[in-house]
Design brief:
Layout lengths: L1 H5 L1 H20 L5 H12 L2 H11 L4 H11 L5 H21 L4 H8 L2 H9 L4 H12 L6 H16 L3 H17 L6 H4 L1 H14 L18 H11 L7 H16 L4 H21 L6 H18 L16 H26 L5 H8 L9 E4 L1 H4 L12 E3 L4 E3 L6 H11 L5 H8 L13 E4 L11 E5 L14 E5 L6
Parallel strand pairs: 1-2, 1-4
Antiparallel strand pairs: 2-3, 4-6, 5-6
Helix pairs in contact: 2-6, 2-8, 3-5, 6-8, 6-9, 7-18, 8-17, 9-10, 9-11, 9-17, 10-11, 10-13, 11-13, 11-16, 14-15, 14-16, 14-17, 15-18, 16-17
């Protein structure tokens, strides 16, 4: 049995199953607005636009710069999914083949929500950071010269993927510093990291003219940390004292199983503190892409503090059983719902935006201007349209595709979110912008808010909002055209 778990063939079977599952889910995935915005910025924005928008978007530029040549070559947005999948596959390949961790620990990790679905299937910049972090964890396997190159690459990926992985890279820099206090030339060897981190911080620092203030302590929401801890282990459960206790107990069991429990506790707690500070003081969405980072970090901490030698698959001591037991218990708790997520992704719409795009790609629709409300929600439609069409965004009073994340856009977004503006006000303020409004050649009006009395504004309903999405419920759109418009 021990030889069975040690054998590389089993690891290849596991990796193949993981690749097959995530590829199948990705092929069935529909873009939502955050994914679409990345692709649209890379496709329609200049490099200068990318660097101008990044401080207010809250992301380093690497993801967008990688997508830029693909979009410029007029390739499909599917290539964006491919880049993300490749990053996550490389990361999980390192975990399976290079970490030396027990398969009994790795298997429930890979089939958790974040590893099997959230990070590989939803194409965002987080996959680059995971690859960078796991590449860093694998450096102890390399020789000195190779290790320097791998360290440079891993730190580059972490510094320029997301602000969260930049924070973790700083923690790992401090760890290297603590281990090298007696070496007088240590800081000199870290110049490359200090330069990269400094550039990333300079790029990320908010202008104060967008969704984020220039002050790090933007608000104080300690409940966000509790929510993140709970949902890192139990992503479908409400954050209560009971679920918090269970989640902390699972994390504690994993750390207690380590050969170096003090080291892993210190490292994990430092990373938790850095990521938690971002969640508490700056931004936290409540989505698995944020809370799941804590599970990724825990996995990396186990890797970096435990044995890097090949294992027999079974923990060698009773204490080392704690980590796989904790992960399998969490897996057993979550797997029925995770499997349901896989089924929903394969059989239902993640977002209904592509269905609105099918209407807009019709012969009588494709050459018309389109007014779209709510602006940010509309982004999900654009990658599916034929050609590089643009929308007119009401209230922002701007034609374009990608989000600028500026103060005007942010104000309109929250007015829409809070419903402090009505659909009548939106249309009334838009009509003067179009001399042919309501005429035969007039613009279409696409909205994820229903227009109660379209006749009053010279509009007629062309397509109902389908409202069939299982996850992004606010990306289903009513399509209206001018009353004089001839439709098939």
């Amino acid at each position: 049995m021990k030889n069975f778990f040690r054998h590389n063939a089993l690891r290849w079977v596991l990796f193949g199953a993981y690749v097959t599952l995530t590829l199948w889910l990705t092929v069935n995935h529909e873009l939502w607005r955050d994914e679409a915005d990345s692709w649209l910025l890379a496709r329609d924005g200049s490099v200068a636009d990318i660097f101008k928008i990044m401080p207010d978007a809250g992301h380093p530029p690497l993801w967008y710069l990688l997508l830029k040549p693909l979009a410029a070559a007029d390739l499909s947005w599917r290539w964006m999914q491919g880049v993300n999948l490749m990053a996550v596959w490389l990361a999980t390949g390192l975990l399976i083949f290079q970490s030396g961790l027990d398969l009994l620990f790795i298997i429930p990790l890979l089939f958790s929500l974040v590893f099997s679905y959230e990070f590989p299937v939803i194409a965002r910049n987080y996959g680059l950071g995971i690859f960078g972090l796991f590449l860093y964890a694998a450096t102890s396997e390399s020789g000195r010269r190779k290790r320097s190159a791998v360290l440079l690459s891993s730190n580059f990926l972490m510094c320029f993927s997301t602000v969260h992985f930049l924070a973790l890279a700083i923690i790992l820099f401090c760890q290297r510093g603590m281990a090298s206090l007696s070496k007088s030339r240590w800081l000199k060897s870290e110049i490359y990291f200090l330069v990269m981190a400094g550039i990333s911080i300079a790029i990320l620092w908010p202008t104060g003219r967008g969704q984020f203030s220039a002050n790090f302590f933007e608000h104080f929401t300690p409940i966000n940390l509790q929510d993140a801890i709970v949902h890192s282990m139990l992503p479908f459960e409400p954050a209560t004292p009971l679920t918090l206790t269970l989640s902390l107990a699972a994390i504690a069991m994993v750390m207690a199983a380590s050969k170096k429990p003090k080291k892993i506790t210190g490292l994990f707690t430092a990373g938790l503190g850095m990521i938690g500070a971002i969640f508490v003081f700056k931004y936290y969405s409540g989505a698995p892409r944020h809370s799941g980072l804590l599970l990724v970090w825990l996995c990396a901490c186990v890797w970096m503090t435990d044995s890097q030698q090949p294992t027999d698959g079974f923990p060698g001591t009773r204490r080392r059983w704690l980590a796989p037991i904790a992960m399998w218990l969490i897996c057993a708790w979550n797997l029925p719902v995770v499997a349901n997520v896989w089924q929903l992704e394969a059989t239902r719409n993640f977002s209904d935006a592509h269905e609105a795009a099918e209407i807009l790609n019709g012969e009588s629709m494709k050459n018309r201007p389109v007014v779209c409300w709510v602006p940010r929600n509309c982004l999900a439609i654009l990658p599916y349209l034929e050609g590089r069409r643009k929308f007119w965004y009401p209230e922002i009073n701007r034609e374009g595709t990608f989000e600028y994340w500026d103060a005007q856009s942010n104000t309109v977004h929250y007015k829409a979110f809070e419903r402090s503006i009505t659909i009548d006000q939106v249309i009334a303020s838009t009509i003067p912008k179009f001399s042919n409004w309501g005429k035969q050649d007039g613009p279409l009006f696409v909205s994820n808010w229903r227009v109660p009395d379209p006749d009053k504004y010279g509009l007629k309903l062309i397509s109902l909002a389908k409202k069939s999405a299982w996850r992004i419920l606010d990306e289903s759109f009513w399509v209206y055209g001018p009353q004089e418009m001839e439709t098939p």
